[in-house]
Amino acid sequence: MSGAVERTGAATAPALTLAPGDLHIWVLPRPWTHTDPAPLPVGELDDGERDRAAGLTRTGDRVRYLSAHVALRRLLSAYTGIEPQALRLGRDRCPCCGGPHGRPVLLGRGRETAQDWPQFSLSHSHQVAVVALAGATVGVDVQRVPPANAVRLCLPDLHPAEQAELAAVPGRRRPAAFARLWTRKEAYLKGLGTGLRRDLAADYLGTGAPGPARRGTPHRPAGWSVTDVPGPPGHATAAAVRTPHHYRTVVRTLTADCLHAEDATELIADSRARVHRVPQTAARRSQK
């Protein structure tokens, strides 16, 4: 994992675009490994990213972090036309305390958010990383299905209606149902910019339909669309977009060669051949 990269601000026409109402999900099913034919271009990352990676004591954690952030920058480059190393990433203000640790954003020339560029969110769990891009505020989360004992420990922290729904799921299916619920909740909290600093019981992200609540079923958060997204086996993935409307979700696979190839932008653009579109009916059904 090496390679110094010259930092320039040169921009070209974006290789990929987001149409209004689009949500693009990119899944990286495995990180870079030492058996890959070329080094990981960590020179494309900024000092803060490299420092955070250096602080991870486990080699596997460090490689997964670096792989996910190289993937993020290369994807953002494909959507903005700006070289990965020239992109400036920052944080919005936290809605809870006002501190500079809210959701991640692209920055313009100063500290202001680049309003015309894609909103994005990154999540990684074990061997999988997921990046979501949209024209509106977005959060994404991926989690490996947990063991049953982890589900039992976390259940009391959830919204009472969520606890009741999971209690009604047969035992063998409960961990997968919990993972789907948890990713919906964390995707929403990441979209808000609070992360897990917000009370997990404060918001209902269960299986109840959005809109007018059925008797005894609470509302999902107003002004947000939260959807289960197809992902790798053994994992749950969800995305939350700040819009009251349904949106078109397209899931693409980001192959590991996109992490080190010099023509990564072309490879990313060609990934349109490996598209999985989530039908609107499926998106609605996932919220019921």
TrEMBL record:
Where exactly are the transmembrane stretches of this chain?
none
**CC per GO annotation:** cytosol
Under PANTHER family, the record lists: L-AMINOADIPATE-SEMIALDEHYDE DEHYDROGENASE-PHOSPHOPANTETHEINYL TRANSFERASE, PHOSPHOPANTETHEINE TRANSFERASE
Matches recorded under Gene3D superfamilies: 4'-phosphopantetheinyl transferase domain (3.90.470.20)
The record's comment on protein family reads:
Belongs to the P-Pant transferase superfamily. Gsp/Sfp/HetI/AcpT family.
SUPFAM superfamilies, per the entry: 4'-phosphopantetheinyl transferase
Q: Which UniProt keywords apply?
A: Transferase
Q: What is this protein called?
A: 4'-phosphopantetheinyl transferase
Question: In this entry, which stretches build a coiled coil?
Answer: none
Q: Which residues form the 4'-phosphopantetheinyl transferase domain?
A: 138-201
Chain positions covered by the region annotation Disordered: 208-241
Task: Tell me if Transferase is a UniProt keyword of this record.
Answer: yes
Concerning InterPro entries, the annotation shows:
4-PPantetheinyl_Trfase_dom, 4-PPantetheinyl_Trfase_dom_sf, P-Pant_transferase_sf
GO terms (BP aspect): lysine biosynthetic process via aminoadipic acid
Q: Can you provide one Gene Ontology molecular function annotated for this UniProt record?
A: magnesium ion binding
Presence of the UniProt keyword Transcription regulation in the record: no
